[in-house]
Structures are given as C-alpha cells and as structure tokens.
Write a structure and sequence with these properties.
Elements lengths: L1 H6 L3 H14 L9 H36 L1
Length: about 70
C-alpha cells in the first residue's frame, strides 16, 4: 500500500505500470536477476571506461592546443 501512495496512483494503475515495466525491460518473474544484473553492470563499467578515455584524450589534446597558442 505504501508503494501505491508513493506512486500517487490507484492500485490498478500502479499494477499496470509495474507490469509494463517488467514487459518493457524483459524481466520475467520466473528467472533470477543475477546474470542480467551482472551483464548490466559490465556494460555500465565499459561505458564509464570509454567516457574516461574520451575525457583523458580531450584533456591531453586540449592542453597541447592551448600551449601552442602561447
């Protein structure tokens, strides 16, 4: 009941939103989230590492271009 109050919806609308969430994200109540969560964590780590590499590359080249102007 507390969740329904947090969502500020009726019980049936909250249940419909929950079912839609599970269907949209391909989550089944018959399987565990273990492998799915590890895969998601791995993907996020890869994206974060890619962003870090991009930022480092920008910093590296930006400093050189600024020093060249001086």
């Amino acid at each position: 009941m507390n969740f329904v109050k947090k969502m500020s919806r009726s019980k049936s609308m909250t249940l419909l939103m929950m079912l839609d969430f599970f269907e949209t994200n391909g989550i089944s109540p018959n399987e565990t989230l273990g492998p799915n969560m590890k895969t998601l964590e791995s993907q996020i780590k890869k994206r974060i590492n890619a962003v870090i590499a991009i930022i480092k590359d920008i910093e590296k080249h930006h400093d050189k271009s600024v020093l060249a102007l001086i």
